[in-house]
Design goal:
- The protein is of the alpha+beta class.
- It is built from 4 helices and 5 strands; from the N terminus they run ββαβββααα.
- A hairpin with a 2-residue loop joins strand 1 and strand 2.
- The longest helix is centred in the middle third of the chain and has 35 residues.
Length: 203
């Protein structure tokens, strides 16, 4: 039997077997439309097609789903753009990395507060700040690498705002790191009696 499937502005005519499955139909539509099977949603008479059990669509025989000769279906879903998928993966990775570094900055701030309060494990505040400076330098280095990766990513005009949001998130973390750096420098200065100097350059 022949059915028609509308996707966007296009309508595709397909010859299908009544004993075939919905999964098989979706596999053919993936080839015809470029919409991956797992992203497809087929609508027939205003309702989404699925297996009678409500489970996996593959076992659903077309005849059981009451599809007949000449019936019209609508396909919903998006095509996969490899370049955009790669960009989304990069943005997701950088957002997670920035969140992890944010947690590390929080840990540094907590440890610095303990140093300021005199809980420095029997060493001077200046020495207690050394590992904090090292951790902070690592955070800054990772954030700057993230900016470099985002700058090198291929971005379509429609996705520039998405990249901009990730860039702003990293820049905000760098500003926070700058504030922590100043606080560490002030703590070291107070301990040594020397004017405060910025511990690291986070620009």
């Amino acid at each position: 039997m022949k059915v028609s499937v509308k996707y966007g502005k296009d309508t595709h005519g397909l010859d299908v077997d009544e004993s075939g499955t919905l999964g098989e139909l979706c596999s053919r539509l993936e080839v015809v439309t470029g919409v991956p099977k797992h992203l497809q949603k087929l609508v027939f008479k205003g309702k989404s097609l699925h297996a009678p059990s409500g489970g996996d669509a593959d076992p659903a025989v077309l005849d059981v789903l009451k599809l007949r000769e000449g019936c019209k279906l609508m396909l919903l879903g998006r095509k996969v753009d490899p370049a955009r998928e790669e960009l989304m993966a990069v943005l997701d990775q950088e957002d997670k990395a920035t969140d992890a570094i944010g947690a590390e900055l929080t840990a540094i701030e907590t440890q610095l507060d303990r140093v300021k309060q005199g809980f420095a494990d029997h060493i001077t505040p200046s020495k207690a700040c050394v590992p904090l400076q090292q951790k902070l330098a690592w955070c800054v280095d990772e954030l700057e690498k993230g900016l470099e990766r985002l700058d090198g990513a291929t971005v379509q005009p429609s996705d520039r705002e998405l990249r901009k949001a990730s860039v702003l998130k990293i820049q905000s973390a760098l500003t926070r790191a700058d504030t922590v750096s100043d606080s560490i420098a002030a703590t070291v200065s107070a301990d040594s009696g020397q004017p405060a100097e910025v511990a690291i350059d986070v620009d």
